[in-house]
Design goal:
CATH architecture of the largest domain: 3-Layer(aba) Sandwich
Structural class: alpha/beta
CATH superfamily of the largest domain: NAD(P)-binding Rossmann-like Domain
Number of strands: 12
Helix content: 40-55%
CATH topology of the largest domain: Rossmann fold
């Protein structure tokens, strides 16, 4: 029986990237549907959960994608609420690659040092990847500072992650040299989750830092998020610190994304969000 993956994308045009990785992850057929919302998903979900016998339902799965995490999270919750008894299929949320990218970065960090009790700073933390990375680091026992250029945005993201995952994050500002230095004070870990091409740290801000042990930046643009690192870095040592660049993280992200897709077809009850993605990532490093 063919493994069918239905991609419910909250954007009008579904992601090509997600389609390619879905096939590489073992799906026999990927149906991409754009503009999916909580209001129009009911007949799609019913088509997925009613059409195959119980023993064959594991061969159908749903992937929630799109560029907006809030919309993806709402759709993810709505779809699960339509499941009942054994009328369900496995489902995965990865809006804007938030879970797989964050999980890959955090797995590499935690494989290089024990993060429990460490202070971790997530720069540009209010985006999808930053929010999820902060959650995953907190779940592993780190004390996490989530930063933004505006305190209100940081506070909002911290409150949101607390409601969704029950983790306590510290909101902070990282808008200029002084506020960045304050955010990095006595920190051992820094995770860069900014958009590609935007510099978050100058070289001297991290190279001479007395406490930083590990840096991970997901950016892959011509201008690195952290000046002085290379996006190919994969546990490279620079200035006495372990460094992970965007491509170094991206290699594990792709491996993880494919592994998650494969897992979806092992049963009809799997739910892959931040915590499950983090566990799978850790098993791959």
């Amino acid at each position: 029986m063919k493994k069918l993956l239905y991609q419910f994308d909250t954007d009008a045009i579904p992601s090509v990237f997600d389609s390619v990785v879905a096939y590489d992850g073992g799906a026999d057929n990927v149906t991409q549907l754009g503009g999916i919302t909580p209001k129009n998903c009911l007949p799609l979900v019913e088509g997925a959960i009613y059409t195959r016998a119980p023993k064959h339902k594991k061969n159908t799965a749903i992937f929630i994608g799109g560029s907006d995490l809030a919309s993806g999270q709402e759709l993810f919750t709505t779809v699960q609420n339509l499941f009942f008894s054994n009328f369900r299929v496995s489902i995965m949320l990865d809006s804007n690659g938030c879970n797989t990218t964050a999980a890959a970065g955090v797995a590499l960090i935690s494989n290089s040092i024990d993060v429990k009790g460490k202070t971790a700073v997530v720069l540009a933390g209010t985006g999808p990847v930053g929010q999820r990375a902060a959650v995953m680091l907190a779940m592993k026992g780190a004390n996490v500072r989530l930063t933004s250029r505006q305190l209100e945005r940081s506070e909002h993201s911290c409150e949101l992650m607390d409601r969704e995952f029950g983790v306590k994050l510290e909101p902070m500002v990282a808008a200029d040299d002084n506020s960045i230095a304050n955010a990095l004070d006595n920190a051992q870990i820094v995770f860069g989750a900014g958009k590609s091409g935007i510099q978050l740290l100058r070289a001297e801000q991290w190279q001479n830092h007395p406490d930083l042990e590990v840096l991970a930046d997901v950016g892959t643009g011509r201008i690195p998020g952290f000046e002085g690192i290379d996006m190919m870095d994969n546990n490279e040592e620079r200035f006495g610190k372990r460094i992970f660049g965007g491509i170094g993280i991206g290699a594990l992200k792709l491996k993880l994304h494919r592994a998650c897709i494969a897992r979806l077809f092992e049963s009809n009850t799997l739910v892959i969000d931040a915590e499950e993605a983090s566990l799978i990532a850790q098993s791959l490093v």
